[in-house]
Amino acid sequence: MQALVIVAHGSHLNAGSAQPTYDHADTIRETGAFDEVREGFWKEEPHFREVIRTVESDEVFVVPLFISEGYFTEQVIPRELRLENWDPDLWDSEGTDASNVTLEAADVDKTVHYCGPVGTHDAMTDVIVQRAESVTGDSNVGEGFGLAVVGHGTERNENSAKAIEYHTERIREMDRFDEVQALYMDEEPEVDDVTDHMSAEDIVVVPLFIADGFHTQEDIPEDMGLTDDYRTGWDVPGDVDGQRIWYAGAVGTEGLMADVILERAADAGADIGDALERVQEWTGGTPAAGD
User: Fold this and answer.
1) Which Gene3D superfamilies match (predicted)?
2) Is 92 left (phi over 0), alpha (psi -120 to 50) or beta?
3) What gap in Å lies between CA 6 and CA 20, rounded to an integer?
4) Distance separating alpha carbons of residues 96 and 41, to the nearest angstrom
5) Pairing relation of β-strands 111-115 and 59-64?
6) Nearest C-alpha neighbor of 250 from the set 289, 213, 202
7) Are 63 and 118 in contact (CB under 8 A)?
8) What are the backbone dihedrals phi and psi of residue 24, each rounded to the nearest 5 degrees, phi first?
9) Residue ranges per domain, the chain?
10) Which one of 23, 57, 122, 139 has the fewest CB atoms closer than 10 angstroms to its CB?
11) 2-120+255-283: what CATH class?
């Protein structure tokens, strides 16, 4: 028997923070690829430290629903799952290369395949593009459009920006959009000045966040000038300095995210059958960029 455990941050303050995790877990359950699919959270129940103890399968694939490699994926999650002999160096990653490590979980007789975060997987590139298609309603969106990939950014964790830059460059190499720019909330170039950094008349803005919350539904729309008060909402597209802004909201809410989770588990050796093809059919996705 094999189980999939999707671990995410969750929130005590935002009831909708966990919803993408449950949605993607439901999608994967529907494929029948795993005998069990469970969700675990840092700030909600079931907690990281308990979730593996709720599965019966001897083989467990753990996929972090996080954007970047860093404190949570390298320290908190392995510690709470009680993964024996874990060391971040086992990933042999420079910030965007984490794949998977097979370890034993203390206190339970289970083999755990601990995967890198979804946010640095190559398949995430396609989810960002799919998000642009979803918000514009155009499966061919690109020509005449700019695309801004927005991250939090922080001087405390350089890997936060690495994931943004990685996918921005991959999309730029597709030569699909007129221009592609990485923007940040807490670093330069800042999303506040999106119209200063991009010249396209139409700009799709995709935040590389897992769930819609304080940053994506309050800070970013107000910072960009889409609205003076997030509580009154905003138009999509909205006019900012004579340019149309197509604000997509958090990339993690896109249905195709289930594909990335499956890709992570498959890379770690999970037998998923035709689950990827089925998810892509349901969500209108395509094979991962570069395949």
Assistant:
1) 3.40.50.1400
2) left
3) 11
4) 23
5) parallel
6) 213
7) yes
8) -70, -35
9) 2-120+255-283, 123-253
10) 139
11) alpha beta
Q: Same fold for the domain at 2-120+255-283 and the one at 123-253? A: yes
CA atoms of 209 and 119, how far apart (whole Å):
9
Q: What b/e string do you get for 163-174 counting C-beta neighbours within 10 Å, with b at 16 or more?
A: bbebbbebbbee
Element housing 9 (H / E): none
Give Cβ neighbours of residue 284 (< 8 Å, ≥ 6 apart): 130, 133, 139, 256
Domain 123-253 has CATH 3.40.50.1400: yes
Q: Report if pTM > 0.85.
A: yes
User: Inter-axis angle of helices 257-267 and 123-136, to 10 degrees?
Assistant: 170
Q: Which amino acid is at 236?
A: V
Do 4 and 32 form a contact (C-beta atoms < 8 A)?
A: no
3-class secondary-structure state, position 211: coil
Peptide bond into 237 cis (omega under 30): yes
2-8: strand order across its sheet: 36-41, 2-8, 59-64, 111-115, 100-104
For residue 162, give Cα distances in angstroms to 59, 173, 215.
31, 17, 19
Chunked into runs of 10 residues, the chain (291 residues) has average pLDDT values of 95 82 96 97 92 94 94 94 94 91 92 96 95 96 97 70 93 98 91 95 96 90 94 95 96 94 97 94 63 41
